[in-house]
Structures are given as C-alpha cells and as structure tokens.
Amino acid sequence: MSSPEVTIRLTAAQALVRYMINQKVRLDDDTLVPLFAGVWAIFGHGNVAGLGEALYGVRDDLPTFRGHNEQSMAHAAIAYAKSMNRKRIMAVTSSIGPGATNMVTAAALAHANRLPVLLLPGDVFANRRPDPVLQQIEDFGDPTVSANDAFRPVSRYWDRITRPEQLLNTLPRAMSVLTDAAECGPVTLALCQDVQTEAYDYPQAFFRETVWQQRRICPDAGELERAVAVLGKAKTPLIVSGGGTLYSGARDVLADFAATHRIAVAETQAGKGGLAWDHPMNVGGLGVTGTSAANELAARADVVLGIGTRLQDFTSGSRALFANQDRTLIQLNVTTFDGQKHGAQPLVCDARVGLEALHDGLGDYVSPKDWQDRTSLAMANWQQAADGVMAASNAERPSDAQVIGVVNRVIDDTATLVCAAGGLPGELHKLWRVPGAGGYHAEYGYSCMGYEIAAGLGVKMAHPHREVVVMLGDGSYMMANSELATSVMLGLKIILVVLDNRGFGCINRLQMGCGSEPFNNLLDDARHSVPSAIDFCSHAQAMGATAEKVDGLSDLKAALERAKASPVSYTIVIDTDPLVSTEVGGTWWDVAIAEVSHSENVRSARKSYDNAKTKQRLGD
Questions:
Q1: Domain limits, the chain
Q2: In DSSP terms, which residues pair with 546 in a beta bridge?
Q3: Residues of the chain with pLDDT > 90: what percent?
Q4: DSSP code of 215?
Q5: Domains 7-212 and 391-575 share a fold
Q6: What CATH superfamily classification does 391-575 receive?
Q7: What CATH code would you report for 221-381?
Q8: How many CB atoms lie within 10 A of CB 392?
C-alpha cells in the first residue's frame, strides 16, 4: 500500500511565489541561476492582501520592486528579459481595473517582440458574492468576463485562476511558454482576489527545484539540404540578421560565417549589434530606416537568408525592397510561423545551430568577387555619408544625427544605447556604431512611446556595471517618465539624452511627406491658449536626478562627461530641429494616403503612392 502524498497547506498566492522561487535556468556557460530575478508590484485591493502578503514572506528570496506606473514597470521587466537574451525574466503584478489594463500595452509590446514577462493582474471575486466590486467591468451578457480578458489577444498564454488547485496545471504550462524559444512571449495569469487568499493542500513535490534550459532546435535534414543548395549557388547573397541571432548567442558564429563565405550582413532593429559595426561584412541597418549600402544590396540580392527575423514592413520595405525578380528567400527561424513568411523557403531551427550547419554544408563557398567589391564600395560610400550627417556644426538647433554623432563618440564602448519610438530609432538604426555585444537596445516591434526610460532601468538591472544611455524625444519623455524616479530610488543610474524638438517631430515629417500641412504634432501647430514651455530639467531634478540643458553640440560633449562621472541618474536636454532627418539611406514605406482630397499636395502624394505600390511583391 503506497504512502499518502506529502502536502503543505498554502494560499494560492503563497504557492505561486514558492513555485516561482524554485524555478531555475541553466545558462549557456552552465551557470544555474533563478529564472525570476524579481517581481514588480503596485498593490491595490485586488492583490495587496493575497499576493502582497505572499511576496512579503519571501522578500529575501524573491525581491519585490515598487514602480510608479504599471505599464512602465512591465516595460522595465520586458527590457530586463531582452537584455538577458530571454534567459531570465521578471513578473509584474497589479490590482484589478486600471492597474491591470495599464499593463495591456506592455503585454502587446512583449507579444510583438517575442519577449517573456509574467503578468499577474488581480481579478474579480471568483465566488461573485460581492459583485460588482470596485473597478469591476460588467459584461451585461457574460458574467465570466472581466477587464483582464483584454489580455487574451496580447498574451501567448492566458488563464484566470478561479480555484487554488488550478495552479498545479497552469504554472508548468506558463513556465514552458516563458522559457521556450519558439513560443516565447507574455504570459498572463489573472488572479481572482478571493482565490489568492484561499488555502489548499499542495503536494510538496510540486515545489521541487525545476531547471529550464532553452532547447536548441536542429534543422530538418531536407530543409537544410535545400537551403545549402540554394545558398551555394548564390551570385548576390545577403544575410538579414534579426533578434534571434542575439537571443541564440549566435553572434560569434555569424561573424565567422559572414567572413568565411564573404556574405554581407544587414541588420534589423532587434538584430543590430549582431556584428560589430566595423566588421568587414556588416552593411548596417536594413529597410525603411536602413543604410544606403544595405538597401542597395537588398534590391539586387538573388538569395536572402533571414536569421531570426519576423520580416516586418520596416525591414522588407513593405515587401518592395527585395526587388530581384529571381530572388529566393530562406527564413532561418525557430518558429514555423516566421519561417514561412513572404513565401520563404523555411529552415526551422535555432540560429546558432542552423548557421553552424549551413557553414558545414557550404564548405569552401564564397560569394563572387564582383559582389564582394560592390559590397565594399557601397559600405565605403555609406560610411562617408554617415560621417557627413553626424559631423558637428554650430547650428542653433542641431539635427538628431548630429546629436547622435556626439553621443556615439563620447560614451564608452561598453555602454548600452536604449531607444524606442519617434525619429530617433530611424536615425540610430542607420547611424549608431555598435562596438560590441549588448551595445544597442531598441524596441521597434511595437514602437512604443514611453518605453525608453523604463527600459533603461530594466537594462541597468540586467547589467548594473554597464553605462546605460537612453536617447528619446520630448514627446516620449512626456508620455512616460516616472521610472526615472525609480532609478534614483534603487540607486541604478541611467543617463537620459532628451532631444527637444517641441513635439512629435517624426510624425510631423511623415504628415508633411504625405502631402498634408503640419497639424497637431508639433506643439506650436496644436490648439492651445498658452504657449508650451516645459522645463524638462526642473522636472527631472524634482524626481531626484541631476539635470542640465545644453546650448548646442559644443556643450553636449562636456555634459556627457559630467553625466558619466555622476553617481546618480542624469538628464541632458538639448533643443533639436524637428524638420531635419538623414536623407541618405532608407526605402519606401507603405503609408496609405488619402485617395480624395482638396489639397493638390495630397493628390500628388497619392499618385506617387499608387506608383510605389506597384513594386510590392504580394504573391510572396
């Protein structure tokens, strides 16, 4: 007769955090570390008495961090996971109602970028006895619906915990999603607030230490053979390196592969930094925000090898960039979903393993000499153009590119540059020269304004010994800035470089490019009774940071040196020109323009748009 199972009586919330503590991850260097680096929390009536009580009890084993905004906390957690190449993660908890729905945007960001985060919003009472409770959303026809159903389309895994014992099934499933290279993304466990406090006799075995390690998917023999056959005959090949290159730790393998076979490498926003900027085969950013070199080669390439990229429209020039009518696209990706995009020939596998297999299969193949020469010439021309647009000047309001040039020259090679939305990611994708691994952190899958400052904090938590420099516009600063105060509170210094162009300069330029008049984007073109005069320095100082405004590029260098020497978070504000962007490089982007308009400029822009659409390859 078997002995009874050993159990321990815990609340559902206590069981959840105990389970989290016992999840470990084995890194590539064989180090064993906790999977969860901590929990971000803003407490309310939906989580303070349940999960809050449980977190207090394990505060020395599972740190709890307090933020100032639920969306920003989640952004910090997501940036942490991205900086750790998706190997370690954080959780974020909120109360029900607005605290929960504040995190929906962050969930969407994580989903678009395939980044892991565990979201633990409080939920309504499972027993429904006090319904409707404070902050409850009532569906007139379905009492099972709550505000947390909004997380369903932006979560890779979603569950509502209405019984304590449901954790026995849902937690292992949640962990498998968070740690799987192909499924990776946000997990939402909506925690009914009464259930958080209810006790259950959990099996002791449920809390045994579990070690996770991302599996490295090997390529199918047939897919590999077909990829080698196509690539081995390529006359004008091009590699497109995405975030998957970094997440799989394939940086060194890619550098060797490109150098050996003499194949140029263009980078997506997520893949930037996969090669050092001065690697002889690195032709820089690709697509709408890409270099002239990368886009010239992309238009001629007969074989395009995508590595760990989801081929969004900015990368593919809205499906018009890869213009060679005879080109073949090979998509090396851990997911079948991405591997078959754009009519690609799939190679479903881990990036590092796949590159190693391709390297072996290609043998002594190298691209033709004339293609190598074209690559070198295109890159030399681009570097000359980039040097020109980044050169310092005495302009009263410098361009974003000129500010980038100064910052890039001053900060250390080991620093991480963080960006997300507006015009800066476009300029940085083209111009920022990444010297080594981890030097560039862009969120451009969701292009979320307000990600930047919180992300800088998350990057600093992942790499506390790195200098973290956040470049953002005044619009993004105003969108979400509260975690600057959190960085001060936690003693995690970040440097902000705020480019003040008095509004949403990027969209203003897009608006004008579509034939419209400037309207409602720059502060001076918006409806107002009192002219805007925002003092960013005083605002940053009020949150505990050191701050200064510089008069121009000549003062920016000295300010950056002071920021590097500062022990606390530092904000530098500089006025910039909202109308100037780097003209060289880039490619067409499909932004629909009004088919009927009273404006001749709009009608003219529509004609150009209709002509450009004819170059799209919609069959693949």
A1: 7-212, 221-381, 391-575
A2: 570
A3: 93
A4: -
A5: yes
A6: Thiamin diphosphate (ThDP)-binding fold, Pyr/PP domains (3.40.50.970)
A7: 3.40.50.1220
A8: 16
Amino acid present at 191: L
Residue 211's contacts (CB-CB under 8 Å, 6 or more residues apart) are 24, 25, 26, 32
Report the SS3 class of residue 258. helix
- Which fold does the domain 7-212 belong to in CATH? Rossmann fold (3.40.50)
Query: Residue 148 — φ and ψ, nearest 5°?
Result: -70, -10
Distance between start and end Cα atoms, the chain = 63
For residue 323, count CB atoms less than 10 angstroms from its CB and return exposed for 0-12, middle for 13-18, buried for 19 or more.
middle
What's the rounded Cα separation, in Å, for the pair 437 and 283? 17
Cβ pair 483, 71 in contact under 8 A: no
Backbone angles phi, psi at 574, to 5 degrees: -140, 135
Taking the model in full, what pTM does it have? Answer: 0.97
β-pairing, 157-161 vs 186-192, is: parallel
| pLDDT tens sequence across 203-233 | 999 999 999 988 899 999 999 999 999 999 9
Tokens 């990706």 locate to 333
* φ, ψ at 232 (rounded to 5°): -70, -15
Distant-in-sequence, close-in-space partners of 369: CB < 8 Å, separation ≥ 6? none
Given a contact cutoff of 8 angstroms between Cβ atoms, the answer to whether 587 and 294 are in contact is no
Can you tell me which residue has the tokens 């997506």?
Answer: 268
Token couple for 365:
């193949």
> What are the structure tokens assigned to 538, written together?
């005083």
Q: What is the mean pLDDT of residues 323-346?
A: 95
**Which amino acid, one-letter code, is at 343?**
G
Split at pLDDT 50, 70, 90, the class of 1 is low
DSSP 58: T
Burial label, 531 (beta-carbon count in 10 A; 0-12, 13-18, 19+): exposed
Whether the bond into 132 is cis, omega within 30 of 0: yes
Q: Which of 183, 16, 171, 9 is nearest to 86 (CA)?
A: 183
Question: Exposure of 227 by Cβ count < 10 A (0-12 exposed, 13-18 middle, 19+ buried)?
Answer: buried
Distances (CA, A) of 112 to 74, 89, 172, 312, 389: 14, 17, 23, 10, 32
Alpha carbon of residue 492 to chain centroid: 21
Q: CA quadruple 294, 300, 305, 309: dihedral positive or negative? A: positive
